[in-house]
Every structure is written in structure tokens, then in C-alpha cells.
């Protein structure tokens, strides 16, 4: 449960939801309990019995059979028959069972039979009344069938139901596991015969789809595809004035050609977009769009809906800022301006609904933390009420509690601090917070290795090895990872040394890319994506455990889906400049094996198999070759299906 | 807060209540917040501003000025002036302050002045409008007086109040700090000339009061003082039949002479009881009574209110059991029998109210875990609504969550597992759960070293040293401690080896005591109680920290009330049979001192003073002399009142 039921916990459809509760009654009477659950909107609860784990903690599980909001609560009652049965057994053992003791249990059976109208119970009560023999009566009362029948028809005295109904959000698999590839469609054209780079179109993107799919990605994500404003248009490298012919930033949304529900004419028509959606689907790729709630000064809304904006005392409007960044080509709507409720709110919802209607189910949302939480909670809830397969990704890089709050109010996925976590200790600390802390119930981290805004300093001079390190971290630590095109070419030239802006950023200009650039890591990314598909343990950030590796430059961890599965072990050299060797511990104890035990090992990179004996193992990771290793380890199976250690 | 406001946290009147909250707003605007608080039942909230601690965590404090239930909640709003001021400072620093920037802040001041009708703000707005000079305007807007006035009259846009109101229970000091002495009044008579022990009376107890008070106790607690049933009366050492003339167990309440609101005739009359109350008060002692909800088969209620009991099919009634203990002389009421609601519930409440009316404010409640939680919540709330100085002590020895639940529903104090915690690791673990875990907000542990039911095995053969060890533990670890008479005489003879029953227990017979028995520890108990009175750090279990002592037989800890106070250090040899020596760490770091620093030390037992230099210290604890040491340590004060280290 999350914040006492105020927000849903998040799960994937097909998951079992494990519910635990402390359940107490005064005295020595036994209690029984059930989890009540239903799809939100249904009247009827379904129920499943809970079992006692000890120390008054109970648990039960229910399945998520379909997408969308579910809810559960817990019910408990005094279990009179269990109490009577326990008492009977004690008195039998002590040899002081009296006739009245038996009579009382018989009355309980009769009353339950009468109340339920159950024939079997009535027959049982008849049989009990027909005999005076204490042994025969005890035997009948202690029979397992009797206990089952009495439990099934229990009148549930002192029934108490938890006053809170706890929500659970069941989302589709891709909400927790997918691999994203980001590109600027306008840079996807081939240079023409004169070496001039034309403005790319959706059809150029269609031509790139096979390559993207071959790398193993599931999602193609594009920055805004809408008409770009001309007022205060940015020039290359974020200069405040554009030269004639410069394309401007796609985040300056809106021009005379239209706003958030229009397509930039140079990219194509809405029909071209539909062809792209359909072509992507045929390659097994899904499109993700950018939902950026901001306007160029030329956006039609400024003319048609001036009451959605905050005008200054001098009649001007303030341009957007996200300190220290300035966006002179952008103005923001005001969610609480005089005309904004409901006008602006529903218009924004309708923008999303428009693209949902065009088949889009993934939205990366720009800077959501500068917009009201209540707006997101309402809008996301409204969209998902009819389309529970829609997924929203929060692009908020801000204070942790704001990021978590956005996840609570409805975002399925969230950008993270991953790009700024490079050292072993900080990676372990951050992963532990995400996978084992409170956020594990509602915050799904999306590990982007780079974005058009973040050219991580770590990559500037670490070359191919550095890119492999970061790719390995993202693909193995998180179920969700993303890459902005150019990463696979190890493109990391900064605008200025030590700064995170790309030189000649595609945000402000067209770029031409050589997709076969020497030293690229396309093959490695392809293999990493394949290993993710083949190993469910790599399809979530949950279930990670950091094990001992003596070398502080080597991050070493295991991931496991179920407690009986094999473990995927990963060792990554975080130092892109030097060979690192380390002793590390083979987690034999996770399989109940002693320190001298053995595990079967598959090297998932090379496809080789071997056996490792003993807890202490050693690995050498050469960044010039491959700065990481990935193994799958397990006890193997004997012919009769048992683990070999257990079979001995 | 406790269980999302379902139950109150517990505090002592005079405490400051520290409230923390995570407070978030979207975007970059500043927020402000206040704690709202009031005595329960008042309409008007009082408020106190909260301050930002960092990472979106805010805090504020309010005082508990009177006894009883209080409540608080949190309010927050967008702080437009703070945001504008921050913006102004940034623009001034960057040199890009424009006229419209200043105009907008001026409009905010004017609007606030108009809305509040505040003259000073109106004058300020006039002054701002009267000048065009940006510097003069900025200076006025940035003046601290302006910030204060704007904060005071803030219109609080986007005001949001936490939907939960959180209760706090303010109790009197004795709810958290007192020392209890338990005795059986019927054993307090002096043998007569023939050496025969007569039945003691309240007047015999009055004669004992000076000795009890001299030992430093605050509370005199007596087992039930009501008429004792004759049916199935227990004989000495819990035999199932009593010989003629045997007094029976005082827990078999009720006879022809009366029930829970009557006094046992052999103890005296109600008027004698009143004399005892008054005599105790004149000695600075308070009486605690035993509230034991059970009846002897002769209790008037069985005749007058048969519908308060669960009769069996054969017309009999089951005697009480608390497995494995059997109470053949007792039957229990049934809280849910046909006539019990409201009859029994109000009758029980009226029993308590009767004794409250006789001046009793402390009730030790027998076995509350076998009665309904809702009964306790209602009854305790009802009594405390008119008498918030009444304190209930829960005598529940059962599973931890039941014991905690009783504290949540209203018990001020609780018996604990202390009597069964003897080793260093288990003492540290238990104290950490009580003082630093969730229970610290609602569960006040009462450390009894023995009770009529618990003659701890640890004491059976450990003699004087063992009794000193346990007395030192109870008096220094907990604000509440208790002793059943005989402990000071080191009486620990068990009924059977290894069992916790006393031989010749006063529960079933009169005893004659030699209060000057050789080897008694009256002097040590007197001094321990005195040190508790003199050192506020010893008046609560909260604030305990366990420090390093190398020897596993030595428990070593510090207690401190406020972060600037001296620390009381305690070292206790848990081994009553052997001298134990140990190195231990002087907690210089708690005073910000380096490892080679020095502290002034007062040996609280011997009254000597010295200085300790350096973190490593050593102590020798001889159980034949004194198995513990108690010091008060601090940096001392120089002539100008500074700590000497800081003064250097």
C-alpha cells in the first residue's frame, strides 16, 4: 500500500499481488482472514483466504488478470470452529474432554448448517446428534472434511473489514520492460548528390526502422513533431537568433501551420505519420511521442485563448526558464489563468487523446514537474480510464520527492539520476533506494544513457569503452533503458569541455550521421538487447542484489526473478581506461549450497558453459575488449529434475 | 503520527511536539507552511510557522500546555512574495531587473495591503508607487520588515490543508516517570504476642508508608482489595482446595460482602481506605489499584446479571484459564453476552469511576489482552475525558503486537518482556525496539523487576548481586520501574526449581516479613531512586544510546535529555557471580570533542569528581560490592559559561 491507499501501487498484468496484514483479536480465540479484491468499478468482491505467517502477520495473494485499476482490502473474523477444534484437541490430549465440550461444538456445527442451508453440514450434525460416543463424535469433529466445510460456511462472527480500499494499477509489460531509441526525424534524410542535407521526413524514418529493430529496440521515440515557431527562433548551438533557413528547436511548438495536434509540414502530413506508425508496428516497434506543454509565441493558442496565459503588467509574456536554462523561444501556459480551468486542461487532455486516437500509446512528457500535480493525476487518469495501455514517461530532473510524487500521481515511468551515477558506491546506493526502498512500489526508473540534453561528462573522453560501460549498466540494471541516437556511434563531443550540451546539437540543426562510423558499438547493443529479451531477470530493476567484489572499480550484482530461478550475474568494470581484475563471491548461499559447492555457469556473452567450484572466483575485465561479463548460474538439473546438491 | 492519525502519539504535558512534513509544489515557486494545533474540542486552531529543513522536509513545534487530547494538522500555500523576492534578488545580481519586474511585486504588495486592510502595508505600497527609482523600490521591497509584514498578511494562495487531523495525548509526568512499590496489604500486620500473624489492614499499610517513601518510591500499588469468594477458594501454593481459614486469592473477586466496588472487610472499611489514600498523599505517595475484570463464582453479578456471562449447554460456567495457568476460583464475564452491551460495559466503567471518585488515579489492569480492544478504547477515553490525570497500566504478557495495540487504544503504561531479558545483546535489542522503533511514540514500558506472578529465574540463585543488577537495569533504563515487596530483601525462593512461582506466594496466604533481613538492598534502592529524581535523563527510556564496551558481560549506555545536556553513563555487570572488567568508550564525539579530549566526570554513586582524558577508559565491576557504576559526564563550564574545549 502507498500513503495509506491514497495512491495505487504499480504492477504488471499477470502479476500476483501479495497482500500482508497484521490481524489481531483479543484473548486466545483463533481468527481467519481473507483478501477481498476486484477490478475498480466492479461491485462484487472476489476473495482469497489469508494464511498466518507468524507473529500475527497474515498474507494472501490475488492475480491481476486484466489491465487497469484494481483494488483490495482485508477482512477478518473470529474463527469459532478453529478455536473449538484447537480446544478439543488439547482436551483430548489431556484426557479431560467432557460431554458438554462436545455438545458445544455440535451446537456450532448445527447452527452453521442451519444458517448456510448446506446439506453436508446438516448430515454431519445429524450424525453427531445420533451418537453419544465421545470417540466417534471427536473423530467426526476433527475430520479435515469437517474443518473445510465449516470454513466454507463460516458465519464469520465479529467480521471486521479494513476501512481503507487500497488501489493497484495493472499495466502492460512494456510499462516495465522496454528498450527505447530516440532520434530526430529531421536528421534522418540521406545527403543529396551535392552533399547537402535535406530536411528529413517520416519516410526517412521509415527507412531507418529495420536498423533500429535489428539493434533490438522496442520503442522509437521522437522529440516534438509539430510546427515550429518563427518568433525568437533559436539558431545552432542554442544561439538566441537563428540565421535564415535554420530549423529551430522542435520544443518551440506552434506556428501558423498549427499547434500540438498538427504535424510539422517538412516532416510530412498526418497521413505520412500514420504510415510511420503502421510501418513501425510491422517491424515490432512502437512509437513514443513527446508531450511538451509549451508554446512558441506563434502558437495559435496565444491568439485564440489569451486567457490561458499569464500576461505581465506591461502586456508582455515571460519566456520560459528552467534555471539556469533559458528558453527565449518558448512561453508557458498558466494552468490557473482565468480561462484555464477547464479550457486549457481539457484542451491538453484532448491533445493526448488526439494522438492516442492516432495509435500512439507512449508519451514522454517534457518537464512535468513545472505543471500542477492535480493536472497530471486527472489527465492521466482520464486517458487511462479508456485506454489503460497508455504509458506516460516523466522527464523530470528535479528534487527526489517531486520525481516520486509524479510517479505516485500517475506516471508509469520516470527519468532518473542514472546519468550522474558513475561510481560503485553511488550506483549501489541509488539502486538500493529504487529497488528496495519505498519507490519500488510505484516508481519505475527509465535508464537513459544519454539524451539530447545530457551528453554525460563521463562519456566525453572515455570513448568506446565508456559507452560500453554505460550501456551495460543501463541494460542490465533496469527493465527500462533508452538511448539517444549517436550513442551507438560513441558521439560525445561537448559544446564546451565539462558541459553536458552536445556540440552542434540536433535540437537546433540538422545533422548527417554515418551509421557505419568506425568503432561503433551497434553489435554490442544488439547483443545486450537480445540478452534482455532472453532473460526475464533483466526485465526489471527489482530483484537486484549487490554481491562482494573486492575491487572498487568493479560493480558486481545478481538478478533473479523467482526464488527458484537461476541467477544472472553481471560484473562491470566502471573504469573505462584500465584493465581491472577482482575476486568476487559466487552466491552459492542463494541456492542453499555450502562455500565449497559448485554451480553450472553459462557465459551469456560468449555462449560457453562451465562449472564453477567454490565461493571465491576471479574475473579480468579489459575495457579495450569488453568491460563487462554476464553469466547465468544455477545448480543445473539432474535427470529427475532435482538440483544436483539436493539429489546427493 | 501513528497509523495515519487513527491513534494518538503520547507525550507529557510541557513537552514540545515536533511535527515534520514533506511539502511539495510543482515548479520553482516557494512555499510556506504552518502547523495548526488545538486542544481537542476547541474550534479555533492556533498556528506556528514551519521552517524548511532541506529536501522538501519541513518542521514546526507546538507546546502541550495542558493535560488531555490535542490535535494538529499541517497547512501550506504558495508563498508569492518569497518567490518574487528571490526572483528580484537574482535579477538584481544579474543586472537585468526591469521596470515590469518591480511593478509586479508592487502589485502584489498593493493587493495584499488591500485584502488585509493593514495600514503599514498600505503605506509601503504608497511609498513604492510614489517613486520611479528602481534602486529605491528594490530597497523597500527587499527590506526584512517588508518580508515580515507580507508573511503576516499573506493571502495564502493555493492553501492546502492536510486532510488528516493527528491526535496527541498529553499526560502528566507520572505517566512517564515514576517508581512503583507493590505489596499485599493483608501481609503488613505485625505478628501478635503469640507469634501468630493476623490479617493485615489498611492501617497496617499506613504504618509502612514512611519506609516505602524513604526508599524513594512514588506509587504504592496493591492487588485487588475487594471481598474474596469462598467457592473453589485456592489454598496455599495454589492448591485447588483451601483449608478452613485460608484467605484465598484476592483475584477471586466478589463475595456476599460485595464486588468490585466493595472493600474486603478484613482489610477495613471504605473509610479506612480513604484514610490510607490521604495518609499516602501526605507522604508524597500515590495509590495504584488493581482493576481485574473477573469474578469469583460468589460475585453478586452472577446472581444479579446472569446475562453478562457465557453459560454452557449444561447450565455451568467455565472457569478462567490463561494457558497453561488455570484459575478454578475465577469465572470471566462475557463482553458480548446478551446483556453485556451496554450493561456490563457501563458497570465496569462505573467501577473505575467509583475509585476515581475515591481519589485513585492509577490503575494496573489485569490481563487486558483477553478483553476487547474496543472496550478499552471506549472506557479509557470515557474516564480520561473528565479525568485526564488517570493513568492505566496494562498487565498484558502476550504477543508483541497485542501489547502494542493495547498501548495504542489508550494504556499509558505497559508491562514488558524486561524480566526475561538478561543478556547484553537481548537487552540492547529490546531497548532499541522500545526507544527507537515505532513503539517509542505510544508504548511506555514499565520495568518491573519482579511481580507476585514472576519470580525471575535469574534471581533464584544470584542473591544480593543479582538483585542489584536487575534493580540497576530497571531504574536506569526506564522512566517507569516497579518492585514487588520482598525484592528488597532478596527473597527469590521458587515454588519449584526453574519455575517462576514464588514459594508460599502471598497470592494465597499471609506472609510475615522481616524488613531488616540481613543482606537486604534497601540502601541501594533508595540511592537508585534518588539518582532518578536528580537526573532527568533517567526519567524516561527514550534517549538511550548503547556505547562500546569490550566485555559482553557489561552493558554500557548513555542517557541524555537534551542535545546540550550532560550525559549520564551507566555500566552494569550482568554477571552476578564474577568480577568483570572492561575497556569502554567515553562518548567524546557527543560533545563534539576529539578522541584525545577530556570530560569532567561525576561518579553519581560515590559523589566524587574527576576528569577523564581520552576515548578509551576502563572499569572494574565487582558484584560482591556493587555490580554497576553511574557517572554524569560533560565538558564542564568555564567561568564565562563556555565549554572548556571551545574556550581554548
What does this structure look like?
2 copies of one chain form a homodimer. Chain A is α/β, with parallel strands linked by helices and 648 residues long. Chain A is built from 16 helices and 27 strands. In chain A, the strands form 6 sheets. The first copy, chain A, has an 8-stranded parallel barrel. The first copy, chain A, starts with 8 loop residues before the first strand and ends with a helix. The model of chain A has no long low-confidence stretch (mean pLDDT 95). The A-B interface holds A 4, 22, 24, 26-28, 55-56, 99-100, 103-104, 107, 312-314, 316, 323, 369-373, 399-402, 405 and B 4, 22, 24, 26-28, 55-56, 99-100, 103-104, 107, 312-314, 316, 323, 369-373, 399-402, 405.
Task: List the defining traits of the structure above.
homodimer, 648 residues, alpha/beta, eight-stranded parallel barrel, six-stranded mixed sheet, 27 strands, 29% helix, 23% strand, globular
